[in-house]
Input
Amino acid sequence: MRLILVMPTGLQVGYDAYFSSSPLGIETLAASVRDIADVTLVDLRGKGHDVEAHAEGLLTHKPDMIGISMNSASHTKYSLLLAAAVKRRCPDVKIVLGGQQATFLTQEMMEPGHVDAVVRGEGEQVFREIVMSGGFEGVAGVSWYSDGKIVDEPDRALIENLDDILPPARDLLPNRERYRVGKYRVEGIETSRGCAHHCSFCSVRNFHRGRWRPKSVQRVMQEIDELLETCPYPKVIYFVDDNFSTDVRRMEEICREIVKRNAHDTFFWCQARVDALAKNPELVEWMGKAHFTAVLLGLETPVARLLKSSGKNISVDQTMRTIELLHANDIGAWGTFTLGLPGETLEDAHATVDFIPTTGVDVAQITVATPIPGSNLYDEAKEQGTLLVTDWDKYDFTSPTMKGQLPKKKLDALMHRAYLKVYLSRRFLLSMFKQQTNLHRLRRTMFGVFLSWIWFLLKNRVRSWVGLKGKLSNPRQRLDT
Ligand code: B12
Ligand code: SF4
Output
């Protein structure tokens, strides 16, 4: 079977504007079927939005099946258009969707009739069965069309031992120059799946059915060693796990193993919770020794009422303590903050914006609470009739999508104020001239991103003054080139 796995494009939002990381989902799927199929990987991010040309391009490979990874709301519309463009040209090519967004919106994705099947949940075993049998009937975890009707096969059990998953087939996507932040190459590694917490705005818990499953430390190190060998460039290895700090002992073991490798020019990023790090200073010390340079922390808001009602359940003390620990170990704090949580008042929104520069974060990312499918926020908004927006191309994570959220103009003004305060602070400006510590390097890189963002806003403003229609492309395109 000739198979193409596609990482689609769409709206470029959020982190997408800061760095481009390899499409681990399709690389991992490819590994699970490459022995039984002729697999091609295509990453369309940053390659424009001409679906017709993209469909033509895919069809030159003469595929029997095309799998599209639909993990994100902002990739939804483009992916469906791509499926339709392929089907118009070649109705016999089977189109399969997978990923978070496809899993939680199976019906909606299939109804237009351009998609033959959706794989719900993690894909390795399900997809292998599909490729082996060449069809969908009886394959647990699939929804598919049979005689014009959608059939939902039963759910597939979760993979018990994640060490059974083969390492991602990175070699099938050889041109990796584009996966970078500043001068560093970025490679993702998944060391665990799921999260046991219950944040209302997150879909990860439901996707992995409330469970957290780790790979063994040996297995994680095998993937790291492979990258150290095959990628001789200055690089960032990004642990994509939603909550890398779920098992702090395991995390420390991984750090100790990394230290033994003595890998110069390799830096690590991960996503962790402040409640875990604040309690474990010795772990943060090991992270520093292992060259962790940025930790993504969901800090959301200082308003205790909202931290509780959103299920985040962290405290401002934990936030401040964690950032202090990270800095003491030359590790940057990448804080993500949320405006527009249900129940937020204007006063709360101001409190969040005023809080951001006081935390000392080295990267600030502010998003507007967005009801992504699979999250409790989405279910509640639908139930209570507060969902305002159903056009997935409007899910840019900086716009209001639910009743009760501030208008876009006000939200933008609040976000811009916070960004200016963080990136024009004395601390940031001094970092331009200071010595080469990891923190200063990270701040300099982020200052560069900040400048390209300002440039982007200015150009847009000038274009609208002179009456030019249409928005300019996102700064990400500039960073890529
Ligand atoms: C790494 C990551 C990123 C990276 C890179 C993403 C990338 N290269 O794919 C970066 C940092 C750039 C990023 C950015 C953002 N992300 Co992100 N990201 C993730 C994260 C943590 C891990 C993805 C990953 O690599 N997993 C490991 C691989 C192996 O798993 P996978 O991709 O899920 O693939 C498996 C299955 O989904 C399935 N599958 C996937 N595709 C396909 C296709 C087929 C054909 C089949 C059969 C199966 C299948 O099988 C695979 C193997 O089991 C996920 C959360 C998560 N746990 O998935 C969020 C997640 C995808 N991101 C999310 C969000 C919101 C964002 C941002 C908007 C954040 C922000 N505010 O800035 C931006 C914008 C992204 C955009 N434009 O799409 C949401 C999306 C929710 C939604 N429905 O929209 C998620 C689900 C997290 C969450 N719940 O909040 N992200
Ligand atoms: S936001 Fe983070 S801590 Fe909360 S449920 Fe999602 S992955 Fe877990």
